[in-house]
Amino acid sequence: MRSLIRHYWDKWFREPLRKIEADSLAFRLDGARGIDWKTPVVLLTAAVSLLIQNYTDSIYKVSTEVVWVVRTVAGPDTAADVSATLRRWNGDQLSSRVWWALVVALTYVALPVLVLKFAFGHKLSDHGVKFHGLLRAWPLYVFFVMVMVPLVIVCSGETRFQQTYPFMNFTSREDVSANLWKWELAYAAQFVGLEFFFRGFMVHGLKHRFGVYAVFVSMVPYVQIHFGKPMPEATASIIAGIVLGYMSLVTRSVWLGAALHIGVAWGMDCACLYRRGLL
Description:
The chain has eleven helices and no strands. Helix content is 78%, strand content 0%.
């Protein structure tokens, strides 16, 4: 048993970490490379993306600017129509929540992809957007699922989680039947963007400089986006940020992490609705 544990420890932890650290050390010792522009550009891109997200993730925040642009470009009549549409969307819970999810997904993806493709000429597959090799450490994901399922069941019974999830306020079974799937698809999209941003763009974009410690660099802003959520979830995001970051390093793919994240989120929404008698 001990030899089996040591075998998998070497396979899933020691050897991958050793390789990543060796590559990072070789990069830092190669003085002929000149200035490392990638590190500050990745960090600045991450900061700008999060800044844009914070000020555009609700219709209310951007409606004045959008109407002004439309009025300048297309005239007052079109601006009035756009303003009315934005007010209608802002007053509709599903539309406003889908706006949030899609803006979050877009801000996590758009600028980082442009930087990788046009500033560095890198392939997205080198930053976690690939399927090859993603099952390399699947037992660890299975273990993580086994840990998370009981936690979701227990936490969904607590008032603070009931008050938070789902983000949409469903009031009847008919409302759930009509709109839950729409919300959950949009919700899933922002998790795909989130995993690419933190565990793809940041982790793989910084590992050449920080080695395995790129995981901890990306973990800090990841924890901060959980502020405002229940404290147990915000605390658990420290562990999740480290584990999912490491999984991305080992598999060089963010897809299993995204699937895990989506599964846990959907499970929490459904568990909370079930406890309210709405599912």
